[in-house]
Amino acid sequence: MIRVVLTGNLRRLVGGAREIEIEAGTIGQLFRALGARYPGIGPHLEQGVAVAIDGEIFQDALLEPIPPGAEVHLMPQIGGG
Amino acid sequence: MASDKEFKWIGTRPPRPDGVDKVTGRAKFGADLYVPGMLIGKVLRSPHPHAVIKSIDTAKAEALPGVKAVLTRADFEDRESELVPAGEMMVNYRDIVRNVMAREKALYEGHAVAAVAAISNAIAKKALRLIEVDYEPLPHVIDAVAAMQPGAPILHEDLITDGVDPVPTEPSNVAKRVEFALGDVEAGFAAADVVIEREFDTQPVHQAYIEPHACVASVAEDGQAELWVTTQGHYVVRAHCARLLGMDISKIRVTASEIGGGFGGKTVVYLEPVALGLSRKAGRPVKMVMTRDEVFRASGPTSGAHMKIKIGATKDGKITAGEAELIYQAGAFPGSPVQPGAMCAFAPYDLENVKAVGWDVVTNRSKVAAYRAPGAPISEYAVECVIDELAKRLGIDPIDLRLTNAAKEGTRAAYGPKFGPIGLVESLEQAKAHPHYQAALGPNQGRGVASGFWFNIGGETCASLIVNEDGTTVLTVGTPDIGGSRASLCMMAAEELGIDVDQVRPIIADTASLGYTFLTGGSRTTFSSGMAAIDAARDVVQQLCERAAKIWEIPADAVEWEDGYARPAGANAGNFEPMSLAEIAAMAGKTGGPIVGHAQINAQGAGPSFGTHLVDVEVDRETGRVTVLRYTVLQDAGKAIHPSYVEGQFQGGAVQGIGWALNEEYIYGADGKLENAGFLDYRIPVASDVPMIDTVIVEVPNPRHPYGVRGIGETPIIPPMAAIANAIENALGIRFSELPMSPPKVLKAIGEMAAAAE
Amino acid sequence: MAKNHVTTTINGDAVEFLCEPEDTLLDVLRDELHLTGSKEGCSSGDCGACSVLLDGRLVCACLVLGVELTGHEVETIEAMAHGEVLHPLQSKFIEHAALQCGVCTPGILVAAKALLDKNPDPSETEVRYWLAGNLCRCTGYDKIVRAVLDAAADMRGS
User: Fold this and answer.
1) Do the domain assignments include residue C20?
2) In chain A, which end has fewer C-beta atoms inside a 10 angstrom radius, N or C?
3) Which of the given ranges, A51-55, B751-755, C117-121, has the highest pLDDT on average?
């Protein structure tokens, strides 16, 4: 089980919850599990979400493992100039 | 770890490998390519800020002798509204195709409406005048707050605000609402002894790279295309052009020229799909170069904004709550950087209660593009001004107030995760201890401080390291070099190989010669291409050891690499003379083949960079001119590979910030047209406007990079505006809440203060 | 629409070209003669990226017409080095990392040379005001000014 914290705009797609508990071993599995539980969130996850695992930010890293008990944050993807 | 190692090259200042080409004028930038049979392409642009395009008649232009192709919206396939990955980013191609060539409406003055390719500049210009466009002008709106009001002219009839409940039934100019929050700000404000609330206004400012957009496109009859372009990301350009022209990605080969500045403004496409389309139609190469007027009118500045900031603190200086409402104007299509602006606004502070709300609003102006830490300079400017006001109100030194609340390793950011190791406290402490902070000030002089934060990114990156027969090497990377990164990348490869840095020659590959590499931006190049270069070099080292092992007929793990030599890894391995890289390379062909290392990664673990700036100003009460007397940048680089280029980023970003603070702004008439589309009236800092910019490189290593590197290029533009506003307040006792703080505005405020005193 | 035939001297060489009446010296240098070291940043004389010497005097090539060149001499960035030997300004710019993207560099070097030809011992303020007509967006001017002052010292033999 991992703890997933969502930022403001994503919370609306999970019924307002700020935190969710869900089973997932990698970022890709997390996206699939969230998409299965909350129809409607799928496209937003595809649209550019960064994932912080215990503070470290990952972007486009579907295969990145999520250790059990990790604190995971979903946040908008970051660009730059 | 990086801090324990004794480096041979890292931290030194060798000459950059492309230096001679740049100082002799030999280096080829976007407009420096001339090919046989080349046509000149030019764009017809809307004179109206908002208009329906009822019809476009190109017959006369097409008939003009010397005109070989004409392009309009009819030549681009429409795109559905859909966010798709293009390279690494999410883009809405429906908006991009319309920005490249207007479809139903012209949405800003300068919007591209048609294009021609002709045998000369003169004929191309004449052809543009022969194109007849039937416009129906519409009311326009250029101010974001005005664009949000009911009754404002609507730019997109299908734009429904995202991020609000209930979902609106009517279109508006508000594309999106975003929110980042922790804790309970109301409770936080209730617990405060002092609450300060301020509103701020900023104007769009342009990246103002000295080199205009330019490209040469050549499409053959079988659809194979070549594109030469000045860009921060040629793989991204390839992706956009392939999509817009309906081509397989492998059919377009894009070569990045040297680039004369980007700062985020050259991460998008403007001329390129048009040049390819013209070339495809004409069957000849087409060169297109923007004039400076076009650069200002039709390429993206960054947003202007209207902001409300509220911060509460207890008497001892502990901030109990921070709240921001940010309205950013996106220009003609959605996509202002209000989201990162909201995420970064309070990032330097450890806050239990924080809330940042952002609004992305479209207006009849050119579509904004990224500009050095997009969104963050704007929001952090406003917050850093209020922090300063808070410090004044509480009677606390502004650096001490920041230290009391500073984000540290383990602090939770407003956007969610906790920080790893970061250097904000170090930059603040070193600022306080710096002689600049103690220097005496004279009349009408003041000192200001501000801090800044940017995330930095990694991303897809490839590198290839070829060992030549004589032991010299070629390092091939995919990130265009906008600031001297070639030098640092060669140093990292040389460090790993244990050879002289001038034995590593850098090449920036075209898109057909190296795997996908995301653009140069996001302060990612030294970090990501560096990581890939190191990995490629370690791959080479492994192959060299294996090759030596085969030559010596011992097991591969019995060979180690040290200082450019393969040697037996211990007495048991055997008594062999060490072999240099050159010696192994000379035998490579006969012992298995060439030695080439490569890496293809999606670099993760980019560490954020925090910085603190100190500035002293003097205000001339008769002219309103603010002179920057002294400037010091203190910023965390993790590990400075080539300190001269780290210093250069600090200095360049600071001076852009000085321009943003004191003079730069887009000025529009009531007719919705840009009035200062040139370097005379859009005045960026010149050499006589600024003093030497002193720099202090703080090094809190990033544990995720082999040498501890953090990106540093963007953070330096964030603190200057607030630092200067705070310095002016210190000098005059007047707090400005509008940018730029240009002489007419300063004079007016001085006059008002004098009048009020009477 | 007949083009003008112009004979002039560029970087010490006798040169002939055809140009339209409205073509600038910058257009001629780049488009006709392929001397692309001089850059076009604005075409309005505001950025200095096209700085060249016209009879030894510093000008923006975008503000000189091609047809004006008969009987005059032009010196561009391409003539600053002599064979393999860089001008001290060029060497110092590399040494001090006084360039990042490098597009303003040719114009700044020509302008700096014009300064040192006139005033071999300028102060920092004199260097800054002399170079005020050359825009740089990357460096913030710090290392540029240091490089010019260091080159000046070098050339004075100090």
Assistant:
1) yes
2) N
3) C117-121
Distance from CA of A33 to the nearest CA of B (A): 21
Structure tokens at B165: 């409940």
Residues B250 and B128 occupy one common structural domain? yes
Is residue B213 within 8 A of residue B271, CB to CB? The reply is yes
Q: Check residue C151 and give left, alpha or beta (phi > 0: left; psi -120 to 50: alpha).
A: alpha
Residues 521-550 of B with CB under 8 A from A: 521-524
Does residue B582 sit in the same domain as residue B472? yes
Do residue B464 and residue B552 come from a single domain?
Answer: yes
Is B123 a domain residue?
Answer: yes
Q: Which CATH superfamily is domain A2-76 in?
A: Beta-grasp domain (3.10.20.30)
* Interval B246-267: pLDDT, tens: 999 999 999 999 999 999 999 9
B102: contact with A, CB 8 A cutoff: no
Q: How confident is the model at residue B745 (pLDDT cuts 50, 70, 90)?
A: very high
> What pLDDT does B88 receive?
41
Domain coverage including residue C139:
88-156
Q: Which of B24, B655, B687 sits opposite C81 (nearest CB)?
A: B24
Of how many residues is chain C composed? 158
C103 & C42 share domain: no
Best of A9, A66, A77 to substitute, by most chain B Cβ atoms within 10 angstroms, is: A9
* Helix segments in B473-559, DSSP class H: 485-497, 530-552
What pLDDT is stored for residue B422 in this prediction? 97
Q: Contact at 8 Å (CB) between B117 and B41?
A: yes
- Residue C104: give its domain's CATH number: 1.10.150.120
Average pLDDT for A30-59: 89
Given C78, C110, C142, the domain boundary residue is C78
Of B382, B372, B238, nearest in space to B656 by CA: B372
Choose the closest CB to B680 out of C22, C46, C97: C46
Contact: chain B with chain C (3+ CB pairs below 8 Å): yes
Cα separation, B672 vs B253, in Å, equals 39
Provide the pLDDT confidence category of residue B732 given band limits of 50, 70 and 90: very high
| B371 and B411, same domain (yes or no) | yes
Residue with tokens 């002089």: B445
Instruction: Report the mean per-residue pLDDT for chain B.
Output: 96
Q: Model pTM?
A: 0.97
**Does residue B492 share a domain with residue B508?**
yes
Tell me how far CA of residue B326 lies from CA of B179, B309, B342, B363, in angstroms: 10, 8, 7, 16
C21 and C69 together in one domain? yes
Q: Do chains C and A touch (3 or more CB pairs under 8 A)?
A: no
Interface B-C, measured as beta-carbon pairs within 8 A, has a size of 185
Residue B689 has phi, psi (to 5 degrees) of: -90, -15
User: Which residues form the domain of B323?
Assistant: 305-418+433-450+609-757
Q: Is the pLDDT of residue B482 over 90?
A: yes
Q: Which of B149-158, B413-422, B434-443, B697-706 has the lowest mean pLDDT?
A: B413-422
CA distance B245 to B96: 12
Q: What is the pLDDT of residue B573?
A: 81
B29/C93 CB distance under 8 A: no
Give the nearest chain B residue to A15 (CA atoms): B165
pLDDT at B550 over 50: yes
Among B617, B642, B641, smallest CA distance to B627 is for B617
As a whole-number percent, the residues of chain B with pLDDT over 70 amount to 98
Closest Cα in chain A to B454:
A80
C72 and C137 belong to one structural domain: no
pLDDT-derived band at A48, boundaries 50, 70, 90: confident
Instruction: Identify whether the C-beta of residue B705 lies closer than 8 Å to the C-beta of residue B598.
Output: no
pLDDT greater than 70 at residue B90: no
Answer yes or no: are the C-beta atoms of B276 and B311 closer than 8 Å.
no
For chain B, the domain total comes to 3
Top pLDDT among B466 and A43 is at B466
